[in-house]
Amino acid sequence: MTQGARRLSRSPRDRRLLPRPEHIGRLARREERWFYMFIAPWLIGFILFGIGPILASLTLSFTDYDLGGMPNFVGLDNFTRMVDPVQGPVLAKAVSNTLFIALLVIPLQIMFGLALALLLNQRVHGMPVFRTAFYLPTVVAGVATIMIWTWILGSDGLLNQVLSVFGINGPAWLRDPSTIKLGVVIMMVWGGTGGMMLIFLAGLQGIPHELLDAAAVDGASAFQRFWHVTLPLLTPQLFFNLVLGIAGGLAVFTETYVLSAGSGAPANESLTLVMYIYNQLLRNVQVGYASAVAWVFTIAVVILTAFQFWGSRHWVYYEGEG
Amino acid sequence: MASHDPRDQAGTGDRRVVTGRRHPIRRLTGRIPIYVLLIGLSCLFVLPFLWQASAAFKSNAQILEPGLNLIPDPFRPENFGKALAAAPFDRWFFNTMFIAVLGTIGATLSSAYCAYGFAILRARGSRYWFGLCLVTILIPFEALLIPEYIVWAKLGWVNTPLPLILPWWLGGGAFNIFLMRQFFKGLPRDLVDAARVDGASEFRIFAQIMLPLTVPALTVVAVFHFIFLWNDFLGPLVYLQDTNATTLPVGLSGFLSRFSRQWSVLMAGSLMALIPVVILFAVAQRYIVRGINLAGVKK
Questions:
Q1: pTM value?
Q2: CATH 1.10.3720.10 spans which residues of chain B?
Q3: Check: CATH 1.10.3720.10 for B83-287?
Q4: What interface predicted TM-score (ipTM) does this complex get?
């Protein structure tokens, strides 16, 4: 019997030798049951405390709710208000500020985070001390940060003193409308790099020595080993940092709020989208309008994230799927 | 492979293992640039912390002085005594520790458990469940602030630590689930298949085979979450309105208004609040090391 004929004849009779379809189905169903057993805590939490507030907030965005009295349905008023002559320009300013900050912060955080993780993965003495030192800015928080950042970014603060060594006359970062956003970027990179660094560092621990050793034996240079072995095996962590770095960068709030005491000063240059929502909600008590802006923002970020997941199939390598 | 060097704890895949004939002195001099870089950069990263630490010993006038002076003059260690006497510090410390420890245990265990389901177990529609899970962290916090408060108020749990702890035991938050999922998906699937053939239950495969391989990732989740809960301002501000029930960040923020801008006392209080987290990190980072060697598993 030729190969072709054998392949043809297999269909009806030999199938009995393979596991029957319902048997495969039973295994898959068993795995499916386990899937739900494992995600059950999240699912229960989502049903009890997640879905209610989400639906309530969505509903509120179509009302004029201001905490006093009952909410009245106002149709799409909140959504048209975002582009009216009063709110439109302010919101547009907040969007452009947010994009400016996010586009600078995200690549810097990821690049510095990766570089520091590679550096802290070396075999040198005193590594626990270095790791702790690099992570310190992430730990420092609270009211004291206002003082610290005024000390660093003030007109004769630390940064300008360092710059003056190189003959650069630095601006008053936090008062100058043209530099406040750069001040925010510096603050976010300094404070946010430690987290990404730690995730990359944990990822580096899962890369087998043998692959790097084998590459070295084959004469791969340090850069080639990084580019062809380390980086591909680090793509799950890189993807995580990218997705949540972008989401976090676009949701910038604490830094600008702390630096401007919530005002967006100077001249609305530090007003970001999430700060705009916060002020509409808690200063102007426009719960309906604030919810509407928040949901437009959410939908934009969800679409952006979905695109990243779609694209990840082409560049993220999972050992478990390879 | 037998050439695996057990001393290589930091996990560099150091070439020395392969080309082990380099002279010890040459090896040391080759490392000098790394030390210079590490020391230089860590100075940059430590400076803000050093300033805060020195400010805790400064007089109020000196804190507000411009310039880079890190030496307290006059030296005022009594700032700490003032801070301790000024507020129920021990109470706040206990409250913060209680919430941070219980919340962190819940988030770490729960997120690892749920992430294993999302990463390893195949089910129809699992992608959509994961997508839904992820959407919950993409919503700005303000949008849910009032509806969530109403839920907890209806349950009668405002002014208890429950709203700040219980949610973390139910899934541990999408951030942690996503993080753990990325690490589980990076493990060889053959481990699961082999254990299934041996008749291990799915729970045993998770708890005894896969979980121990993600210790570095679990450490990162625990560290992130502890620091998040320790520094969280909004949560305790909203849910713990009683002064005795509140936490360090909220309590400290009240210092400024109550002591007519006494920065020195605030700095001393902040430094005391910071020290436990620094110690925790210094201890925890030891667990971010190479786990069991996986290269023996053939794909």
A1: 0.88
A2: 83-287
A3: yes
A4: 0.88
